[in-house]
Write a structure and sequence with these properties.
Elements (H helix, E strand, L loop, with lengths): L30 E6 L2 H11 L8 E6 L1 H8 L8 E6 L3 H12 L7 E6 L4 H9 L4 E4 L4 H10 L11 E7 L6 H14 L5 E5 L7 H4 L8 H5 L7 H7 L1 E2 L4 E4 L17 H10 L2 E6 L5 H9 L2 E6 L3 H17 L7 E7 L9 H8 L6 E3 L2 H10 L3 H4 L4 H14 L10 H14 L1
Parallel strand pairs: 1-2, 1-3, 3-4, 4-5, 6-10, 6-11, 7-9, 7-10, 11-12, 12-13
Antiparallel strand pairs: 8-9
C-alpha cells in the first residue's frame, strides 16, 4: 500500500516571477529532510531553509537521493516532508519511489525533484500519491512555495500580509506614519486590517485612534497558551468598519522582557484571519524586534533627514537585505522634512548615500500633525486634501501592492522638493 500523502493535482512547478514571493505562506513547524543527488540542488534547499518563511521548520539536507532516503527510514520514523532528487530515467525513478513508499509512515508528504519534464511521468507520480514534482533546475522560492502549499488549500491565498513600520531613530514619527498608513489601507483600499502596537510600555496607537480598550496585545503575549482565533478576536478594538486595533497597555506596572518568539503565535493567528496587519515596531533592537522585521512581508523605515538617521537606515537596510535575500528590499521614507532653520541632509544626498530612493517625503507641518495627535484623529480626518494624507494613501497602495509605486520623481514629491529649494534659496 502506497503511503505517500497526496496534496493536490497540480502541474509541475517551474521558476516563477519573484514578484509573487509575498504570496507564499510561512511554513509551519514541521520537520523536512532532503536527499539530493547534486550539489546545486542541495545548495538551493539550504538557501531555502534559511529564508524567513522557513524559520519555524526543521530542515536537514543530505546527499544520496531516493536510495539514501529509503535506507535511512528502514528503521527510523519519517519526517513530515521528504524531498528527494533523482536524475534517473522514469522507470528507475518510479521503482525507487515504490521502495521508498514501503518504509514511509502514513501522512508523510513526498516532493520529488527530477530532470524529466514529461506529463506521463507526472501522472504516474500523482497516481502514486507523490505530493509534488519539481523540474530541475529549481530555485529557492519554488522550493519554499512547494513546501508551503502542502499545508494550505490548493490555489488559495488566505494568508494575510504583515507590514512592519519602524523608525530609524526615536522621535521620527514612525508610529504616526504606521497608524495613518493602516487607516488609508482600511478606508481607501477597503481592506480589513489590524494595527498591532508592539511598543507595550509607551505605545500611542490607542491615543491616535482615540481608543482605550481594556485588553490588548499584552494579554496575548503573557498568555501564549490561550492564543487562538477567538481569543485574539476578543482582544481587538474596532476603530472603523475595516480597521481594528491590537493596543499596547502603555503602562509601566511591569517590565516587558520577551523571548525572540514572543509574538509568533499572535502573528500566526492574524495572518490566518486578517488580510493585512500593520506592525508598529518600536525603536528597539532585541531578538524579538529583529525577528519581527525579518519575518514581515513588507518593511518601511521612517527617518528624519539627519546624519544619525542616515547611518541607522543604512545599517537596517544592510542587515535586512542580508537576512532576506529572496525578498524585495525594505522601503524607507523621510519624515519631518523642512523644519525651519534646521540643517538637513537633502533628499537627493540621502538617496545617493544609500543607493536607494525614498518612497515618500513627508513635510514638517506641526499644525496639522499636532491637531490630529491631540484629537485622536488621522491626518485624512483633519485635512483630507492635505498632501500628507495623499502620501499616506500612496504608501498604503505601495505596501499592499495595490497601486503603482510613486518615488521622489512623482508630481507630489517634486512639488515638495521645489518648495524646499525655494525656501533654502
Amino acid at each position: 500500500m502506497i503511503k505517500f500523502a497526496l496534496q493536490a493535482e497540480t502541474v509541475p512547478h517551474e521558476p516563477e516571477d519573484s514578484q509573487r514571493d509575498h504570496f507564499i505562506a510561512p511554513v509551519p513547524r514541521v520537520s523536512i529532510q532532503a536527499f539530493c543527488e547534486s550539489a546545486e540542488t542541495a545548495s538551493v534547499i539550504q538557501a531555502a531553509a534559511a529564508d524567513r518563511r522557513m524559520i519555524k521548520a526543521h530542515v536537514k539536507v543530505q546527499m544520496g537521493g531516493v536510495a539514501a532516503a529509503t535506507e535511512a527510514y528502514r528503521n527510523a520514523p519519517t519526517p513530515n516532508v521528504i524531498v528527494v532528487e533523482s536524475e534517473s530515467p522514469s522507470e528507475e525513478l518510479l521503482a525507487a519511489l515504490d521502495a521508498l513508499a514501503e518504509v514511509c509512515d502514513a501522512g508523510t508528504r513526498v516532493i520529488v525533484i527530477g530532470r524529466i519534464n514529461d506529463i506521463q511521468l507526472y501522472r504516474e507520480l500523482i497516481r502514486r500519491q507523490v505530493s509534488d514534482y519539481l523540474v530541475a533546475p529549481i530555485d529557492v522560492l519554488g522550493v519554499i512555495r512547494a513546501i508551503s502549499q502542502l499545508f494550505g488549500a490548493p490555489d488559495a491565498k488566505p494568508v494575510g500580509r504583515t507590514l512592519a513600520v519602524i523608525g530609524a531613530k526615536g522621535g521620527v514619527g514612525a508610529s504616526t506614519v504606521a497608524h495613518n498608513i493602516a487607516w488609508a489601507i482600511a478606508r481607501d483600499l477597503k481592506l480589513d486590517s489590524v494595527v498591532a502596537d508592539l511598543d507595550l510600555p509607551f505605545g500611542t496607537a490607542g491615543l491616535d485612534y482615540n481608543q482605550d480598550p481594556p485588553q490588548g496585545i499584552a494579554d496575548a503575549v503573557f498568555s501564549p497558551e490561550r492564543i487562538d482565533t477567538n481569543f485574539v478576536d476578543r482582544l481587538l478594538s474596532k476603530c472603523t468598519d475595516h480597521l481594528s486595533l491590537l493596543a499596547a497597555p502603555a503602562t509601566l506596572e511591569r517590565v516587558y522582557d520577551f523571548g525572540a518568539e514572543a509574538f509568533d503565535a499572535i502573528f500566526d493567528v492574524l495572518r490566518a484571519t486578517v488580510p493585512c496587519t500593520v506592525l508598529d515596531v518600536p525603536h528597539v533592537w532585541t531578538g524579538w524586534s529583529k525577528r519581527v522585521l525579518v519575518g514581515a512581508d513588507e518593511i518601511l523605515i521612517v527617518a528624519a533627514p539627519d546624519l544619525a538617521n542616515l547611518r541607522n537606515v543604512k545599517n537596517l537596510l544592510d542587515l535586512l537585505r542580508q537576512a532576506r535575500p529572496n525578498d524585495r528590499q525594505p522601503y524607507y521614507c523621510l519624515n519631518q522634512v523642512g523644519v525651519p532653520k534646521r540643517p538637513e541632509i537633502k533628499p537627493a544626498d540621502f538617496a545617493k548615500a544609500l543607493e536607494a530612493e525614498p518612497v515618500a517625503l513627508i513635510p514638517f507641518d506641526p499644525q496639522i500633525f499636532g491637531t490630529a495627535a491631540n484629537n485622536g484623529q488621522m491626518i485624512a480626518e483633519v485635512a483630507a486634501s492635505h498632501r500628507a494624507a495623499e502620501t499616506f494613501r500612496q504608501l498604503a497602495q505601495l505596501m499592499t501592492g495595490r497601486g503603482e509605486q510613486k518615488r521622489a520623481r512623482n508630481g507630489l514629491l517634486t512639488e515638495l522638493l521645489n518648495k524646499l529649494k525655494g525656501r533654502q534659496a
